[in-house]
Amino acid sequence: MALKRIIPCLLLRDHGLVKTVKFNKSTYIGDPINAVKIFNEKEVDELVFLDIDASRKNMEPPYQVIRDIATECFMPFCYGGGIKSIDQIREIIASGAEKVAINTAAYYTPELIHEAAEIFGSSTIVVSIDYKKNLFGKEQVFVKGGNKNTKKDPVSYAIEMEELGAGELFINSIERDGMMTGYDLEMVERITESVSIPVIACGGASSLDDFNAVFTKAGASAAAAGSIFVFQSKKKGVLISYPSPLEVKDIIS
Known about the structure:
Layout (H helix, E strand, L loop, with lengths): L4 E9 L2 E6 L2 E7 L1 H10 L5 E5 L11 H10 L4 E4 L5 H9 L4 E4 L1 H5 L2 H10 L4 E9 L5 E5 L4 E2 L4 H11 L3 E6 L11 H8 L6 E4 L5 H9 L5 E4 L1 H4 L14 H8 L1
Parallel strand pairs: 1-4, 1-12, 4-5, 5-6, 6-7, 7-10, 10-11, 11-12
Antiparallel strand pairs: 1-2, 2-3, 7-8, 8-9
């Protein structure tokens, strides 16, 4: 059984780090390299970097930023944002990322997931699933930075992505992003019970208890979060932090 993971999820915009609320209202956090150096010191197991403008603005992934991060990063990291071709994935891996997270292209060109898994191995391919309720209260998958409603059910979509060859799923609740009100345990559980690949839960963490809950109550393989790792408290000052090794051991054991 794979070890459970607690993963800082860091958002890139214009080569800097930001934090959003419900995928909007971004707050500048600082330089990504400085954050990486701090996470190195705190012995973080893994990082996720997501460029939040790349797909929405049809931009190329920031390869130089990825290379700069790889130069300083002591731990494996995943990059997502603007990925729509095998050549881009190859360049990102060559730049130093261990995994790629694919969101918008997974919906528009699902064959990319199958092809990428065949070429790079399924463990390299993470499909990122952003979701929120529509006007009628039905949870649906959104792409293009949360701006395009695919009308797809998150659970059915997760199953489809696993069948295509995704090695991991990154499940992100748009409505809980930056709110620090706890994970969407019901949705995470529905997905973990429907697929056999690891599921990373994201959106809403505010405490170590939230990490524990998403593992023990919802069956997540990993818990990702942003605000809890970059703010001193709810929106009060930037402070890069991470649980101590003893706290992590208590959560994942």
